[in-house]
Write a structure and sequence with these properties.
alpha/beta; binds alpha-D-glucopyranose
Amino acid sequence: MKALVAIIFLLVFSVANAQHGASKVPYDAAKMQWFEDAKLGIFIHWGIYAVNGIPESWSFYNKQISYKDYMDQLKGFNAKNYNPSEWASLFKEAGAKYVVMTAKHHDGVALWNSRLSDLNVVKKSPAKRDLLAPYADALRKEGLKVGLYFSHLYWSHPDYASVTQVGMENTPNDKRNLLSYPLQGKEDPARWQKFIRFHRGQLKELATGYSPDLLWFDGDWERSAEQWNMRELRDSLLRWNPGMILNARMNGYGDYLTPEQGVPITRPNGKWELCMTTNDSWGYQHNDKNFKTPRQIINIFAECIAMGGNLLLDIGPKADGTIQEEQVAILKTLGSWNRKHAEAVYPTEAGLPFGHFYGPTTLSKDSSTLYLFLVAQPWDEIAVKGIRNKIKSVRVVGSNEQLTSRKMGGASWLNIPGILYITKPKQYDENLTVVAIDLEGKLDLYHGSGGAVEHN
Ligand code: GLC
């Protein structure tokens, strides 16, 4: 009996893993449900780097600025216009269902009053208060899920650069960044263990003090899963706060994948979320005005949800807590588009596989309505291939303009569907038009590659 149970478990586990690729843990569909349905999250990179408007942490790591000058930014981080309720209502208006804020970036500066390190904005900056509790409260009041970003690596900690990454033992000193690794031959595993205790301690403060719905890790790449002891970390986190979702930047011991900046070209293997900046910077950089247009962002959002992903769209508030006006405008436009097209977004499933339609598509949860996102205006008709269902109606989402459709070609007696042609709409949405096809029954697709029709 036990053996049978074990075999069944292994089978289920391997099927789940085959579907959810890079993850080393089984996919917990019930726990992940809210995240799957969320589609849109807001990422917030808020930290002392906004004072000078320079890259978060990387600016001192890459010696663009000295460590001292970088940390001097603490003196200008005042958060004096921080209004988390306004933030939360803007995010809700944008159509986001969750938010992830940098509790601590690679620089190690904590936005909460950590008992384990004075390097935090409560003790060391004029902000002088915990910035996480009001953030979490404001989000919860708006019904949004609370996420916290936490960098594993910590370039300010005296015990962090105590061991090397597996495989780099012979890297010469001049090739090592001493913020990450010790000099050759100076490895000190005991200090590393001290750092690990500190790392766990800070995470326990976050997991138990703020009960986040999601922990968004970063910076696992400077050590191996064994060095971080990720398996044990995962277990501890879920003991401290059961039900919490963990992203996969835990050397694979997380729940979902996090492609960054580039929309995946092929569908990732498993649940995923694209994190992306609105301009070219994660945090506030006054010189960066290279913003994507709302239309570009809406198109990218559609690409993500069509392939079963979420979009985690980043903003970088200023040191006083105000959100850049370009980002406010993007979020508001995204929000009005989302409200008009809500049925095509929430909660839907990934749409058609590639090859059926030239553009992103989503499918209603009951599989009976297919949504086509028109990334370009058709010359005369919209064409969709491989749909076996009869069509009940075709309409433009938001305006309810009815469109006519007909199937042409195919070999219906062999169940090979023709091409579905839909008349083009009279009016288009200024950002992205969506056409809904209401099907008879659940979507029934023909995937074949064809052959001779031997029976006429
Ligand atoms: C990268 C960078 C970091 C940024 C993150 C967001 O990992 O190290 O600066 O916060 O991406 O995904």
